[in-house]
Amino acid sequence: MRRFALLLPVVALTAAGCKKDELQAALDEANAKLASTEADLAKQKQANGELQAENQQLQDKIAELEEEIRQLEAQIDQLAKEAGVTKAELDELRKEKAKREKELAVYKNLFAELKALVEAGTIKVVFRKGRLVVELASSILFDSGKASLSDAGREALTKLAKALASVKGRDFIVAGHTDNMPMRGARYKSNWELSTARAVEVVTHLIEQGMPPKHIGAAGFGEFDPVGDNNTDEGRAQNRRIEVILMPNLGDIPGMKEMLQGK
Q1: What is the pLDDT of residues 14-54, one digit of tens each?
Q2: CB neighbours of 12 closer than 8 A, spacing ≥ 6?
Q3: CA pair distance 141, 156, nearest whole angstrom
Q4: What is residue 121's three-state secondary structure?
Q5: Higher pLDDT, 199 or 187
Q6: How many CB atoms sit inside 10 A of residue 118's CB?
Q7: CB-CB contact of 110 with 166 (8 Å)
Q8: What is the dihedral of CA 216, 222, 224, 229, to 10 degrees?
Q9: pLDDT (average), residues 64-74
Q10: Is 173 exposed, middle or buried (0-12, 13-18, 19+ CB in 10 A)?
Q11: N or C: which end of the chain has fewer CB within 10 A?
Q12: pLDDT in tens, 50-60
């Protein structure tokens, strides 16, 4: 009986020891799971932190790129504005160059047509006041104090008309000029009248030879636009002349139309 009684505490102790081992094992397992969970959580936090950092870096980069784009757009707008001004200026220069080239081509073609008359000494081609001028001496065209064309004058103007007709769509003014010697005949009271009558006579003949009337006109300047010295015989001879002036196209000048319209 005593022996049995002694066995009960041993069994109890043994059972308690087993329970403790189980509890310890369970505790160890729980701690292991906790440690694993904490490790996983730490990893997740680290991953989340890294992800947040990456997201922040990405947001920062996006913001940086957006700012760069805004700056580039601003630069593009500025460059476009500057390029627009430059382009407009270049276009204007190109237009002006094209106009000058076109005008030069007219001069070259006309001079080529007049070359034979120039070489024969019948006419002179000069630039005066920015205009191409075909100059004929009055002594070739008219007798002294007269406004009727001589035969030699008609022949010279007939050849001239063919050359002038080669210039399409341009206007010409025939200008009569005299020296400063006063008129002695009764028909023309002043050099104004004589110079104008001679200009009209030349225009009439040029029209008869094919010049379009809407592109040619007459003007008399008397003695008031000399090219030589009226105090010498040679200078007065230079001043007695007929000029056929190629008129510029004012409509081609940039801004001229707007200015005339008050804009």
Answers
A1: 555 555 566 667 767 777 777 777 777 777 676 556 545 54
A2: none
A3: 8
A4: coil
A5: 199
A6: 13
A7: yes
A8: 110
A9: 64
A10: middle
A11: N
A12: 545 545 654 56
Domain ranges in the chain? 122-252
Strands 172-177 and 216-220: parallel
Q: What pTM does this model have?
A: 0.64
223's tokens? 């003695």
Q: What is the DSSP string of the chain?
A: -HHHHHHHHHHHHHHHHHHHHHHHHHHHHHHHHHHHHHHHHHHHHHHHHHHHHHHHHHHHHHHHHHHHHHHHHHHHHHHHHHHHHHHHHHHHHHHHHHHHHHHHHHHHHHHHHHHHHHHTTS-EEEEETTEEEEEEEHHHHB-TT--SBPHHHHHHHHHHHHHHTTSTT--EEEEEE--SPPP-SSS-SSHHHHHHHHHHHHHHHHHHTT--GGGEEEEE-TTSS-SS-TTSHHHHHHHSEEEEEEPP-GGGSTTHHHHHTT-
Listed in order, strand segments (DSSP E) in the chain are: 124-128, 131-137, 172-177, 216-220, 241-246
The burial of 235, by beta-carbon neighbours within 10 Å (0-12 exposed, 13-18 middle, 19 or more buried), is given as middle
Report the top-level CATH class of 122-252: alpha beta
The SS3 assignment for 174 reads strand
Cross-strand partners of 125:
134
Q: Residue 139 corresponds to which tokens in the numbers above?
A: 């002594």
List residues bridging with 246 in a β-sheet.
132, 172
Q: What average pLDDT score do residues 257-262 get?
A: 62
* Rg value, the chain, Cα: 53
Q: What average pLDDT score do residues 203-220 get?
A: 96
Q: Give buried/exposed letters for 32-50 (b at 16+ CB in 10 A, else e).
A: eeeeeeeeeeeeeeeeeee
